[in-house]
Amino acid sequence: MEKKKFPNLEQLHNAPGKYHIAAIGAILILLALVHVMIFQGLSPHVVLEELYYIPIFWGALRFGLKGAIWVYLFSSLSYLPFFFGQWSLTNLDLLDRVLHLLFSALFAFLAGYLIDRDRRRQKQAAEDRSLRNIGQAATAIVHDLKNPLISILGFARRIREGKGNPVEAAEIISSSAENMQRIVHDVLDFSKPLQLTCIEEDMGNIVRQAVDVCKTKAEDAQVNLLVDISERPMVVVVDRFQLQRALVNLINNAIEASNSEQGVTISVSSGSSSLNIVIQDHGAGMDDGIIENIFTPFYTRKKGGTGLGMPIAKKIVDSHHGRITVSSRSGKGTMVTVELPRFMPMDRKR
Predict the structure, then answer these.
(1) What is the mean pLDDT of the chain?
(2) In the sheet where 333-341 sits, what is the strand order?
(3) pLDDT score, position 349
(4) Is the pTM higher than 0.70?
(5) Contacts of 219 (CB under 8 A, 6+ apart)
(6) Which end of the chain has fewer beta carbons closer than 10 Å to its terminal beta carbon, N or C?
């Protein structure tokens, strides 16, 4: 039997406007009925005027100044009967209700105006942040592309002039072009949404394959890769390609942070509902400032880095309903933990 899903507060706020209008109208009708029932059993002096502020504020919160004004007008119409007949007792009662209408009008205007102003400021702040991010991204991309482009132009000129070793120059040009291609691919991959194809996989095999991909880099850096993975199958529902890509990024980062003859440990542990992948190096470590910005796009302290490796890895893990955490101490090394659910929710499988 399918479980019934209850909406959360964010879903209620983002619900279509017609639902909010219906709810506000129902509250106004309910208030009028409550007042009639109260007058039938209690003194007619009792009018719960403060309750009318609830739908007014709701209208302001959902629709801004215009919504607050419209709700105020309809609430005033539902309040008008209390000025006539048996409910109109003394001049003091009438004055009290007139003041209520005036104060609720002032409240509607102020609430709607302040909410509209706050939304305009938030929108402007979001646009400013977006422009700053675009500027930072453009600066980072231009900076990263500039160095390999200089190498390509320089060695191409040397080949044209017949200087130096043309084979060595061609290799440098090819390597620089590959670096530029990697930068472009990273930027494109980060900017577009992930399309996951999730099936049941053995996490041990995925991690072992990621380690195999990184072995050449580790051998060149004389770093030892130590693997601690159970032979028992650990079945998870994941996109093998994307997750392996994230793990390769994380393992390569650990290798680059390590000195010669140091080791990088990759371990996997399984629980009843989740699975942890831990990548531990014993390099220089990172301070709090670097850790705080480690998932910020284009932030990097590495020469030749794009600053997108960690953000892309986090994006992949997040898309699997997982979590990635980093702990590090200067001079002691860094530990990256990837926590994944054993089974993804059905709405996240694609």
Answers:
(1) 78
(2) 224-228, 263-270, 274-280, 333-341, 323-329
(3) 46
(4) no
(5) none
(6) N
Q: Report the distance separating Cα 234 and Cα 334, nearest Å.
A: 25
Q: In 3-state terms, what secondary structure has residue 161? A: helix
CATH number for 199-348 (one of 3.40.50.970, 3.30.565.10, 3.10.20.30, 3.30.1300.30): it is 3.30.565.10
Task: Give dist(CA 143, CA 131) in Å, integer.
Answer: 18
Helix 203-220, helix 240-257: angle, nearest 10: 30
Using only the alpha carbons of the chain, give its radius of gyration: 32
37 Cβ contact partners less than 8 Å away, ≥ 6 residues apart: none
Q: How many residues does the chain have?
A: 350
DSSP-assigned letters across all residues of 267-285: EEEE-SSEEEEEEE--SS-
Structure tokens at 199: 């099936």
Written as six digits, the tokens of 246 are: 């994230």
DSSP-derived secondary structure letter, 42: S
Q: Which residue has the tokens 């105020």?
A: 72
What's the mean pLDDT in 114-138? 78
